[in-house]
Amino acid sequence: MIRDHIKHAIEHAIAAAQAAGDLPAFDIPAVNLAKPRPDMGDYAASVAMQLARAAKMAPMAIAQRIAKHLPAHPAYTVEVAAGYLNFRLTAAHLSAQVSDILQAGAAWGNINLGKGQQAQVEHGSANPTGYATIGTARNVTVGDTLANTLEAAGYVVHREWYVNDAGSQVKKFGASIYARYCQHFGKDEPMPANGYMGDDVTQTAQRVAEMVGDQYLNTPKEQAIVALGRLGIDTMMATIKHTMTRLNVRFDNFFSEKSLYSSGASDRALAMLRAKGLLIEHDGALWFSEDGSPIRKGQAKKKTDAEYASDASDDTDEDADESKTQNAVQAVVIRSDRVISDPDERATYFCSDIPYVWNKVHERGFKPAVYVWGEDHQADVARLYAATRALGLNENDVKILIYRFITLMSGGQEVRMGKRKGNAIWTDDVLDQAGPDALRYIMLSRSIDTKIVFDLDVLKEQNDKNPVYYVQYAHARICSIERKVESSGSVDNLKSNIQNLKFEHVAELNLIRKLLELPEIVELVATTLQPHHYVTYAREIAQSFSGFYENCRIIDAAPDVAASRLQLAKASRLTLAKVLHLMGMTAPEKM
Question: What is the pLDDT of residues 306-339, one digit of tens each?
Fold first, then answer.
């Protein structure tokens, strides 16, 4: 990237200025470039302002002395203004880049940030106690886009869904399946307290009944609940996998939480913490104490025994984020037998998180291991990082993203939803009405730490009200232009000539500038893990192409000009298609 070349050129110029006595000796800082106003250039460096104290000089004088030692370069010119070093890319350089884009093809925009390192994105991972909700759609759209990005950034990426198939919520789900199963065969069986009341559970129980018949009607109830719960999870996960396929989200693995216990992984991870003195018996429960100190007075009284009995309440346990008020995290790992009699249900989600992070980072070598969590798991962040440190892992190898929830509007009214109450909005229902591209686009349209409010009615529109339509239409428009050239036969050399391209019109140059940002956008998303930058960038490409096409005719231009402009249109199509691909969307040729 020319940006990186400019950074290094500035660093070398500072060193040359010091060697020549134009600047005093000081440590040369890392140079950062920003995008200035278009009239100021393409890149701006404020390094002279950073150096004012060390050099004991005015920024303007420092910038001038750095510029003096910047050798002339065919790709850019440099100006000094108000203490800034402003770089403007030359028309010759911009023209040459179009050929490079076309030659790169589908690899255009790829960078080598990861250098082949293995990375993992674990996303989705909702409890398999219901169909995929619209909230899950945001989770997996963010996760899948980040996985696409890390691959483009040079990582070997593993995509994983963590199946919560252990714990008290799974038993509650099994009891709900059992009740609906019995009711399917005409047996009067009440739903459990706080059971899962949705049609999705009823439909899943019916599918299970069709598979196994009535054999569990005469099985002891507790045994039947376990068996039917397992079948219910498998059936529910099959439905979820189908939904993911419809949403163009793929996974390499579905990791069973239960396997952490059956394989002994949990026992081994807890043994490591116990050997370090970081697990403490307190009030009948097993606690994690990050610094090994006794459980703080009153800590275990924050919740009642009944609240500690629930995995759901444990998810929002105030104890999970003790770093807000204390230096070290303390959190329950295994609940007291006074609270839960069944030993298979006493482990908290945190008890699973501990061996799982060890498995990811140490055993499978994912660096980074990216977690995509909803905002209801905000309290879990501190304790997972604490466990990571306690296990001796590098905290920087774990990246936890928290995304905000969404508000769905329809007919001008907010649509209320709740999975347990049975009135959740299912991803499949939205896909039926809007399709995967529109849904994914809107899910990526805001920063993950911003709540999304979107109108289902707008997603159905096939016009500029639907934001993804505008971007996809730009791609289809370019395809249409290429088809017209193919059929016109008026300019013979338009199709093959990609060398010695020349561009002079401001609309041409501005479009090229925008296309050349793609590797920088990939790097930005890969480093910040914020995929909404693609949405902004895709729209900017569409706008830049529109400005180009309105001002620069192709077929009607002189042959050499037309040839260059057609190749620029192709480079624009390729770039738009790549951004849409990174976002997991299609690039239609006709609309």
Answer: 444 454 444 333 343 443 345 799 999 999 998 8
CATH superfamily, with its number, for domain 271-403: HUPs (3.40.50.620)
Please classify residue 541 by burial: count the beta carbons closer than 10 Å to its beta carbon, then call 0-12 exposed, 13-18 middle and 19+ buried.
buried
Residue pLDDT, tens place only, 435-486: 999 999 999 999 999 988 877 777 667 666 677 889 999 999 999 999 988 7
pTM of the predicted structure, to 2 decimals: 0.91
| CATH class in words for 464-582 | mainly alpha
The whole-number pLDDT of residue 73 equals: 96
Q: Is domain 123-134+159-262+407-455 annotated with CATH 3.40.50.620?
A: yes
> What does the DSSP assignment read for 214-269?
TGGGGS-HHHHHHHHHHHHHHHHHHHHHHHHHHTT---SEEEEHHHHHHTSHHHHH
Residues of the chain short of pLDDT 50, as ranges, are: 302-309, 311-325, 420
Radius of gyration of the chain (CA): 29
Strand positions, DSSP E, 345-469: 369-374, 398-403, 406-410, 413-415, 452-455
464-582: same fold as 123-134+159-262+407-455? no
Domain boundary assignment for the chain? 2-89, 123-134+159-262+407-455, 271-403, 464-582
Which amino acid type is present at position 45? A
Instruction: Give the tokens for residue 520.
Output: 């920088």
Q: Within 10 Å of residue 72's Cβ, how many Cβ atoms?
A: 7
Copy the structure tokens of residue 552.
Answer: 């620069």
List 453's β-bridge partners, or say none.
Answer: 407
Side-chain-facing half-sphere of 6: CA atoms under 13 Å? 23
- Cα–Cα distance for residue pair 105/581, rounded to 1 Å: 13
